[in-house]
Design brief:
Layout: H1 22-52, H2 66-75, E1 80-81, E2 88-89, E3 98-109, E4 113-124, H3 126-137, H4 142-146, H5 149-157, E5 162-168, H6 175-194, H7 199-206, E6 220-226, E7 230-235, E8 238-244, H8 246-257, H9 264-279
Length: 280
């Protein structure tokens, strides 16, 4: 092993440091000030250019740790947008239900004019879809399942947690109009599946849409099927009703993804995504 030894004698004194060069320091400070002034002029020029072009003025982002940037990026994950109205829907609903597709509910006025009433998004619990449907349909390919009418009918009928999120896009929609429309559309589906008098069940549903609720543009109504076929209805995040009825759940979901849906293209996209989930 090599041993490093240091002499014990007193180290010689070093000569004193030279006096600071005042001229050099002054030149450095002047150069720094000039650079700062140039940067300020450039920033002002960029601001004026951006304003004159009608673009947002860029601002430097505040310093933040990397984890904060990643968290913000995750929170701002892009939503799906209904193309005609621009209504945006989050990728997940309550309980982690996945968005399967978006569509548009239209209505005709006096049989002459069509208006956009609300956009809607259909959500479902992915685990429920797999548990309820995978065994029956695992032998089919995704392309085959896209054309399989039984698949969507099973999704409507079975105990799968699903949500239909309605976002109002018509500025003059009243709760009375919603109640009347559901009375007609849900009533016809109840008759379709039950084949008997269902007025009492229908009234238990439409009665939750009370006149006291207002529906300005952008309002959100959520209609959810929970476990054991419990139907929950909320308006602007407030639960307004809960009804346990497999028939009622089936009838409402049929409006959006059944044989004669409000938006055929949305129904096809929902079915394709269900097929992809159960095959994953």
């Amino acid at each position: 092993m090599v041993s490093l030894r240091f002499p014990t004698a007193t180290s010689p004194r070093l000569p004193p440091p030279p006096a600071p060069n005042r001229a050099a320091i002054a030149a450095t400070l002047a150069a720094t000030a000039a650079a700062a002034a140039a940067a300020a002029v450039a920033a002002a020029s960029l601001t004026l250019t951006a304003k004159s072009a009608g673009r947002p003025v860029p601002h430097p982002a505040p310093s933040a740790p990397l984890w904060a940037s990643l968290s913000l990026a995750d929170a701002a994950a892009p939503a799906s947008v209904e193309p005609r109205t621009g209504a945006a829907f989050p990728a997940e609903a309550a309980g982690g239900r996945r968005l399967l597709g978006v569509g548009l509910r239209k209505a005709s006025v006096l049989g002459l004019k069509s208006i956009d009433v609300y956009a809607f998004g259909v959500y479902a619990d992915a685990n429920d879809l797999k548990q309820q449907l995978k065994e029956k349909y695992q032998k089919f390919s995704v392309s085959e399942l896209k054309e399989n009418s039984e698949l969507i009918n099973d999704a409507i009928e079975r105990d799968i947690r699903m949500t239909v999120r309605l976002q109002v896009v018509y500025g003059r929609l009243s709760i009375r109009s919603v109640r009347s429309a559901f009375e007609k559309s849900v009533g016809s589906r109840l008759q379709k599946f039950a084949g008997q008098d269902t007025k009492e069940l229908l009234q238990s549903f439409v009665s939750v849409f009370k006149d006291e609720y207002k529906l300005p543009k952008g309002s959100v109504i959520e209609i959810s099927r929970e476990s054991d076929h419990v139907l929950n209805i909320s308006i602007e995040g407030e639960e307004v009703g809960s009804i346990q009825s497999k028939l009622l759940c089936q009838s409402i979901l049929d409006l959006y993804v059944g044989d004669d849906p409000f938006d055929k293209n949305a129904k096809d996209i929902v079915q394709e995504n269900i097929a992809s989930i159960i095959k994953s």
